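Annotated sample (chain length 350).
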Amino acid sequence: MKSFWHGKNVLLTGHTGFKGSWLAEILLSFGANVTGCALAPDRSDDLFNLCKLNDQLDHYIVDIRNKSELLRIFLNKTPDVVFHLAAQPLVIRSYNEPVITWDTNVMGTINIMECLRILDKRCAVVMVTTDKVYEISEKSLPRSENDHLGGHDPYSSSKAAMEIAVSSWRRSFFAQSEIKISTARAGNVIGGGDWSNNRIIPDLIKALHHNTDIELRNPGAVRPWQHVLEPLFGYLKLAKALYFDERDVYQAGFNFGPDPKLIATVGDLVSEACKVWGGKTRRTVRRIKEHEAPFLSLDSTKARDLLGWEPKWDFSQTVFHTVNWYKSYLQGNDATSLIKEQIYAYAEAV
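Output written by the structure step:
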């Protein structure tokens, strides 16, 4: 896989975010020429800043709702591969800022696709959505790519709308084009370097580090927990397949999630993380009025059969690598070295 990426011009939106920073590190280690388009990092200790990624790639601070600025970058860089990760990614925030959420996640994506229309070359495009694009079902079953799209909250519905927009543009403007587009639906990713508010791992690490209580919104909720490297390597495999293979089967949605048989709740995640950390924290439950799905699970059979992708780290390994990253970093170890160490360890397992 590494040889494919060497020398490729890759445009990565959302490169200043948690997943984007990890993906940028992988691509750079594989020898790709990376251009990043995103908002500025929120915090000084965001992973992007800790790893000094602005010194290693072409770094553009741009809002994806700004089509003219995006177009200028596309014309200048003419990418071979595009990974679109930029988004308003938080469910709770989407209740407070529904219009911004839809404007960013839907119209921002349409701006990316409009920029792709000016390219006159082969380009593989992976548009990242979420496991929450599926209509909520009363049945506790893993969701497959053929299930109905939907979304109760503004975030989920905006990502489902993004899926519909991508499908429309693909059929309307790229059917006979060298532009090949897929969507990627990943589970709940965890890993070192995420400091976002209202996310379980950052909140838990802060509680363990400062010996304070951890507030849980829904401790019984089941989520498809996976280390951030799992879907990212899936995106890399998908982009490579798109670039070389003309079959339409790759131009569709793909799930990337853990083994559905490994069911774990929010409470399970907290217990396992405390075991790895070597301490404990008192849990309190904060009831919220906003709706959250009680059960989310993905069927990734399609990615396994067509891409040869499957998760490499089970739940215990995922939590161990995540918590150990934070523990090592807070003990004074270098963030970049910790990331590269885990990338190499994972790549050896692929």
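Annotation: Residues 2-349 form a domain with the Rossmann fold fold (CATH 3.40.50.720).
Annotation: The mean pLDDT is 92.
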